[in-house]
Amino acid sequence: MKITDFTDYRDLIKETILFCKRKLGQHYTIGNLAKSMRIQRTYLSSVLNGKKGHLNSDQLYLAATFLKLSEEKYEFLKLLYEYNRSSVDSRRKVLSIQLEKMKTRLTSAQNYLKSVETPSGDLKLDEFYLDFNAQLIHMFLTVDRYAKSPDLIRKALHLSKEVFSQKLELLERLGLTDGLEVKKASLHLPSSSPLFSTYRNNMRTHAIARLASQSEENAYSFSVLFSSEDQAFQETKLRFMEFIEWAQANSQKYDPKEVFQINFDLLNWKIT
Questions:
Q1: Could you write out the three-class secondary structure of the chain?
Q2: Domain for residue 264, yes or no?
Q3: Residue 234: which domain range?
Q4: What is the pLDDT of residues 133-157, one digit of tens each?
Q5: pTM of full prediction above 0.85
Q6: Would 46 be classed as within a structural domain?
Q7: Are residues 242 and 178 in the same domain?
């Protein structure tokens, strides 16, 4: 369930109750929610169905607590609550902008990737993210046949024995491997990192070079220009985030046999 799809806090609460009931058990009911909020079940139902006014801020807090919403999701719920309650056009515009910014933050890739190492601001992995060959070697070592025959990796990447050894030493020094055994396989550099722009450009450059040398059966590329409105842009971005979540779960169903790369670009060519 993606909370950024909702435009009314009441619908968000109703759907979250249903989601929690399906995933976490029968405890999550409107009745138990009302009890935790210290109000009558009939009153809560009327509010959530739009038949009576709005909850107050304390009741909203108690609802979020009962539903175990994360801090970010609670912030989104509060913004939506204020937006739905406001009747001042200028304030609604301000709240709308804040909601869009919150949606962007909540739909960033790292919120969809599970069990990944997201390095903090100390940049301890800067050498890794600025060295594409080190990243490739790291991922190749997650494949058993390459870990047993690392010279296959070296020859495929056209590296000298000295340079290849330096890359292996780098991975071990950063705590990503122990010898040829990978200790940390799932890594993700957040877009907030000052390294992100350089890292992204390196990934694109190497992908373009690889595409030029690959047959259609080993690579797929798609590019298109289209016109629409900003809502289509946001919805496309959200769908890709959902794809990331699916792709990660799907890839983990299989034993690692080869190394693959995904790139996705969604650009706004707005003329200002």
A1: CCHHHCCCHHHHHHHHHHHHHHHHCCCCCHHHHHHHHCCCHHHHHHHHCCCCCCCCHHHHHHHHHHCCCCHHHHHHHHHHHHHHHCCCHHHHHHHHHHHHHHHHHHCCHHHCCCCCECCCCCCCCHHHHCCHHHHHHHHHCCCHHHHHCCHHHHHHCCCCHHHHHHHHHHHHHCCCEECCEECCCCECCCCCCCCHHHHHHHHHHHHHHHHHCCCHHHCCCCCCCCCCCHHHHHHHHHHHHHHHHHHHHHHCCCCCCCCCCCCCCCCCCCCC
A2: no
A3: 126-251
A4: 999 999 999 999 999 999 999 999 9
A5: no
A6: yes
A7: yes
